[in-house]
Recover the amino acids of this structure.
């Protein structure tokens, strides 16, 4: 078997170091992004249930940050790898800064919940009842709920030398209980642990007859267990009961040189990751110091890993209220995604694509045509083969359904499934197994090089011969996230584009070089190189007096080589606008380095996920859409595609969209050179919201 061609290695920079740090640390930039998300929860312009949702998203983001980024940093420290990163911070300095910023973020999360969101929900008749607020009838109902629903699945464990501390699942809800007295065997007991069953909801809605007319009353499972915990230890006194939650390292490690069967290795890693090394301990603020020390010692954590909270330790579970509450007026108004005019016909998708290319902008425009594309291919007797990549596709995916049908119908179906899509590994193993059982050719992403490209290829026999139809996108084949994430999808029957996609699939299955691509740029091979060549071309135009202009919309920007190229372009006079939703290691507006670079972040109703690159090219404008962010992993450790948009109407659409994002003054944040962000405000200018404008222009309305 041919070996996978090696991507270009990053050159070593031997130049003298500047007197300032040219790069912002990615971890600290990530926390800045999470702060912007949390600020959406504080923005009263958003409906109150959506503010609660933003609060929960910020908590989920912080969980993942500790599970992945802090866990990796801790491992570096344990291994003695104290080398500074491009930002020049040592791991020790970085851990201290993470601690300080995370403490501030957590404090703000709970303060916002307790002093703002919960009171606002209460005024709307949605209440979370504390134990001190329960009426007699409510107490009776909750006591019955505890005995009927909770006790049968609880396993309280009293600790002693023969009954060690039980294993705690990652992010599970638990209680440490202080006891006094002797047990049934005459032995003194001091502590016990109660683990909240994963099978039970964390928030319980009280029956309507136990609430005032029009009100919705909810109780936390933790409150129910706390109120009745003494009943779990008859004969013993309960002096205190305190919530805690441990966050564990969730990184998966698979050695590509040692693995014989990736699925078997990954399944083993998934099971182990639930009990990975602890990285953070959260406890309720009432927990006494001695019990905190006891828990820290058990989990081999330091006091710097302890976070005390004023409320439920599993705050992100509040997100279920956004769906449980029957108050649509407290959420964003619903909308119906629009449909491009070209697809509003009785013609089949293949007839449409033979006439013109189609550019879809989700979620403003329907994701349905993408599903229909694969569905039509599965049902069409003229279709001979379907090839598709799957990174995240969701449970009960319609794509998997149609691919299974196609395989069972005898079509050649090839699916590249990325098993190591973080937190979706188990679901993707299930998808791969099902497709294989249906007769599809299933190929896994190569260990060490995740297949992150979003592409589908349909081969159809027509009167003129075989014709290829393609879909390329910036987002996953996931109908649910297509309603929440902004992404572009491009559909075409271009001969050259079809050949390119075919060659990329050949590379993914045969691991041989993909040569002579006509249009597509691909990582980890030529994408970074060709982007830097285009940046250098803008520098030449600027130096020749023709001006230079670059606009890039990405989710993250941290790769040093491309940052350095942008710095060079800025110094040459190229005007650069970067729309970076999340992490950004580039410092904008620094005299002598980046005074011609502006960075903004858009945080709104939808998660900005599309990647678009624009180069002015002295009037011969180039537009690209891509699956790749400007990060090391995307350029060097993933298979990514970057495809041009060449037709003038579609280029005009992309340019108008980019200009709209640059004009946004209601949901945009401007980045400063020190890594902080300022929220833009309309003030005396007309308010502009890119997302609301696109929703009004492209959707089919409410």
């Amino acid at each position: 078997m041919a070996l996978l061609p090696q991507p270009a290695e990053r050159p070593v920079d031997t130049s003298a170091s500047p007197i300032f740090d040219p790069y912002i640390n990615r971890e600290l930039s990530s926390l800045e992004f999470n702060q912007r998300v949390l600020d959406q929860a504080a923005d009263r312009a958003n409906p109150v249930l959506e503010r609660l949702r933003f609060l929960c998203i910020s908590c989920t983001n912080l969980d993942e940050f500790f599970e992945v980024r802090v866990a990796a940093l801790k491992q570096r420290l344990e291994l003695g790898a104290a080398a500074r990163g491009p930002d020049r911070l040592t791991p020790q300095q970085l851990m201290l800064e993470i601690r300080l910023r995370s403490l501030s973020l957590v404090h703000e999360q709970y303060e916002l919940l307790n002093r703002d969101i919960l009171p606002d929900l209460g005024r709307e008749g949605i209440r979370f009842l504390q134990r001190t607020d329960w009426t007699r009838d409510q107490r009776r109902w909750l006591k019955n709920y505890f005995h009927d629903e909770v006790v049968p699945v609880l396993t309280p464990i009293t600790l002693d030398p023969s009954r060690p501390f039980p294993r705690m699942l990652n992010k599970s809800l638990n209680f440490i209980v202080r006891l006094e007295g002797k047990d049934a065997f005459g032995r003194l007991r001091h502590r016990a642990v109660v683990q909240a069953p994963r099978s039970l909801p964390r928030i319980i809605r009280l029956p309507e007859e136990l609430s005032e007319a029009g009100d919705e009353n909810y109780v936390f499972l933790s409150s129910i267990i706390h109120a009745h915990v003494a009943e779990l230890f008859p004969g013993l006194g309960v002096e205190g009961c305190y919530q805690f939650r441990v966050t564990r390292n969730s990184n998966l490690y698979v050695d590509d040189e040692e693995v014989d069967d990736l699925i078997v290795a990954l399944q083993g890693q998934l099971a182990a990751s639930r009990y990975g090394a602890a990285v953070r301990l959260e406890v309720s603020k009432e927990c006494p110091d001695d019990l905190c020390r006891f828990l820290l010692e058990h989990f081999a954590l330091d006091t710097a890993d302890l976070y005390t909270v004023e409320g439920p330790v599993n705050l992100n579970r509040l997100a279920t209220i956004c769906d449980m509450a029957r108050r649509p007026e407290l959420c964003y108004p619903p909308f119906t995604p629009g449909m491009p005019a070209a697809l509003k016909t009785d013609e089949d998708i293949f007839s449409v694509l033979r006439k013109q290319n189609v550019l879809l902008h989700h979620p403003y425009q329907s994701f349905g045509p993408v599903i229909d594309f694969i569905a039509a291919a599965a049902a069409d007797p003229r279709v001979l083969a379907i090839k598709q990549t799957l990174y995240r596709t969701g449970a009960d995916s319609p794509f998997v359904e149609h691919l299974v049908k196609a395989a069972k119908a005898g079509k050649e179906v090839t699916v590249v499934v990325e098993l190591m899509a973080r937190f979706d590994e188990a679901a993707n193993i299930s998808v791969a197994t099902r497709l294989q059982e249906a007769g599809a050719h299933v190929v896994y992403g190569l260990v060490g090089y995740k297949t992150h490209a979003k592409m589908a290829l349909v081969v159809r026999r027509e009167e003129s011969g075989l014709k290829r139809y393609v879909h390329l996108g910036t987002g996953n084949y996931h109908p649910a996230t297509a309603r929440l994430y902004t992404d572009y999808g491009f559909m075409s029957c271009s001969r050259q584009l079809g050949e390119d996609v075919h060659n990329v699939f050949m590379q993914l299955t045969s691991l041989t070089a993909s040569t002579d691509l006509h249009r597509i740029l691909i990582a980890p091979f030529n994408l970074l190189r060709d982007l830097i060549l285009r940046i250098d071309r803008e520098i030449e135009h600027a130096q020749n007096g023709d001006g230079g202009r670059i606009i890039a919309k990405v989710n993250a920007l941290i790769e040093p080589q491309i940052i350095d190229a942008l710095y060079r372009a800025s110094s040459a006079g190229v005007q650069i606008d970067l729309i970076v939703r999340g992490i950004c290691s580039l410092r904008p507006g620094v005299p002598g380095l980046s005074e011609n670079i502006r960075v903004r972040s858009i945080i709104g109703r939808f998660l900005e996920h599309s990647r678009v690159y624009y180069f002015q090219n002295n009037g011969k404008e180039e537009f690209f859409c891509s699956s790749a962010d400007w990060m090391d992993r995307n350029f060097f450790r993933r298979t990514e595609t970057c495809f041009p948009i060449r037709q003038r109407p579609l280029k005009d659409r992309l340019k108008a969209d980019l200009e709209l994002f640059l004009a946004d003054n209601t949901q945009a944040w401007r980045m400063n050179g020190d890594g902080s962000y300022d929220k833009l405000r309309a003030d005396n200018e007309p308010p502009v919201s890119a997302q609301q404008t696109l929703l009004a222009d492209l959707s089919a309305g409410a």
